Amino acid sequence: MEIFRYFLMASLVISCRADSFSDRVVPLLDQHCYRCHGEKKQKGGIELHQIKTAEDAYRYHRFLKNVADQIKSGDMPPEDDVDELPTTAERALMVREIESVMAHVKKGDFPRKPGRPTVRRLNRNEYNNTVRDLFGISFLAGQEFPADGAGGEGFDNVGDSLFIPPVLMEKYVQSSRKVVDAIYAQPALQKRVIFRKPQEKEDPLIAARVVLVSHASLAFRRRLSEGDVAHLMELYQQALKRGESYENAFRAPLRALLIHPAFLFRWEADQAGQKEWKVDSFELATRLSYFLWASMPDRTLFQLADQGKLSDPQILQQQVMRMLDDPRSDTLARYFAGQWLGFDELRESVAPDAKRFPMFTESLRIAMYRESVDFFHHIQTKNRPITELLDSKYTFVNEELARHYGMSGVTGPQMRLVTISDPQRGGVIGQASILTATSLPLRTSPVKRGKWILDTILGTPPPPPPPDAGELPADDKSSEGLSFRKQLELHRQKPNCAGCHEKIDPLGFGLENFDAIGRWRSHDANGQKVDSVAALPGDIVFSTPAELKKLLVESNELFCKNFCRKLLGYSLGRPLEYYDEPVIEQLYQTLVKHQYQIRPVILAIVQSHPFLSRGDER
Predict the structure, then answer these.
(1) DSSP codes joined into one string, 421-448
(2) CA-CA distance, 178 to 428, in Å (whole number)?
(3) Structure pTM?
């Protein structure tokens, strides 16, 4: 069954020259679209004038897909914004040419490129994990760092968005002191870090060099140069000259390690005169560890990199499986899934109104978050199909969350796997973390929830609202006793709002039986029975989360391709480009071949051209 055909990419492949876009489409865009979306005016923040050539069309192909949908539906250009509307033939021509661009991108009818990630500093999570694994500390060393913004495909590990504000440099220095002080405050930790002392009559500098070279090699994630070692040894010798003991003299060089650019940044070397090249073994180890662990490579990876064995396909596959079995791979659930699906927001930014929802305690917030983390981590560790993200017969709860869901038979604060008998739950759509993150403090938000399904689940984001769209009420309680659905229907009567809301709202209405913190309800805040009946293009009608999930599972290609896109973007730490589309298609085929199991696609990403290679241009 083909649900959401309105949003699906047309499958027709048009056999025409790729450069016909500039000859056939650009003049029509100039005639009918630039007035509102050109160089002088960008209504709704949408610009079309920058797309002039087939290369531009490839680069902005996903944006053009939305343009084609608007043209096909007749929503754009609107009658009151142009002197002359495009004819039916002109509309058909623009849609055909854009679909042709999409077909060329899907097939990869252009030179492949590996891409070029911007030099990246460690984000806050990566810094915390790396310092932990380097020195064995148990606290979050970067907890007071400013939050990192999202970039690329929506993740905070993208180099383009990892800026260096002055306050962060101060925080690095403060953190280095805090970490080193912690090492010296714990005898067991100090013994682990300063793991060698001079033998009888041995020059202490020889023993100190062994200690510093070991830590610096791990911290810099590469072989050390003589300059690297000389700088650290100079700091050590200066401390000895000041009368410091053998142990205390390590304070300054250890602090220096933690503020060194080679520690704070992930550098990858260029190769002069080469268009593209394979990353070296240490760079591959670093890419692999920060993808799967959000932390530094361990000694096993370093040894294989030093021996030049890591790039061997069989050894690389073995290491991927070893790393996925390691507890540190839960970062895929916490950082990848958390940022992609949006439940990461539950940790800091989501704040239901305390008076309206006094049962939303801090412990319940944590349980909601842990449910989603444990759920995704289970899918990864057990190599389950990713379609279980859409619907499943199990989840993870503790006593408080089970009570929140109306489940019985669960006692204690520990999260555990339970079988689900309620068809409305199961999958991320029925999880309180998602339902709360897609609500407002005082009410549910069919618009936010519908947009979440279109954008996050299906990868088909609706266009941004027009500037004059107006605001919906913050509270669903109405002085007139109107249901919120009725209030929203009045809002949709505005001509500039109706088109988008017709696509967004039905998906959100299907989840209206879940309140703003994910509890099941039959009546809204006005005491009226919840109306959750929704209709989609193609005369598809549903009224419950269970029916919505069934539709999504039966037509899951969009979801699976979006999953591949997001995971690839997270692994590369850069915005995806048009030349990545064939890789996404290959990843999707890998999913289909392996009955949607998650591990084969993770391995396929690690084995892919953009993950193993680097180019001289993005």
Answers:
(1) --TT-SSGGG-HHHHHHTS-SSS--HHH
(2) 39
(3) 0.89
